[in-house]
Amino acid sequence: MSRQQSGGIGELTHQWGTLDTVEIVKYPVYFLTIIGIWKVLGTIAILVPRFPRLKEWAYAGIFFGMIGAVASHAFVGDYGAYAYHIWSTLGHAILALASWALRPKSRKL
User: Fold this and answer.
1) How far apart are CA 89 and CA 91, in angstroms?
2) How does this protein lie in the membrane (predicted)?
């Protein structure tokens, strides 16, 4: 049984679930590589110590990327009560915002 990778790694390796997503929103497949690189670099920036300004940019990039994904799904009509892509992506945007807002004072600018 194979496991599907999601997020930056899944996008970099063009896993079947991420390929389905770009087909739904009608993006070219190479867009997965671009977004995957950004997500991996953003995650590294948030996890490494110090560099508070870089972390601010990483959080902003993750949040705007997720909101952009929500908008992309909505614009192609992939919405409604059973639209997994919109709800899960919106949940990720909310988690990124909460992580940013609840980080320790020592990590704030």
Assistant:
1) 5
2) Multi-pass membrane protein
User: Which whole-number Å values give the CA distances from 105 to 100, 101, 102, in the listed order?
Assistant: 11, 10, 9
Q: What is the DSSP letter of 100?
A: H
For the entire predicted model, the pTM comes to 0.81
Task: Give the pLDDT of the chain (109 residues) as one tens digit per residue.
Answer: 455 566 888 888 888 878 888 888 899 999 999 999 999 999 999 999 888 999 999 999 999 999 999 999 889 888 766 677 788 889 999 999 999 999 888 777 8
Q: Which of 32, 1, 2 has its CA nearest to residue 18?
A: 32
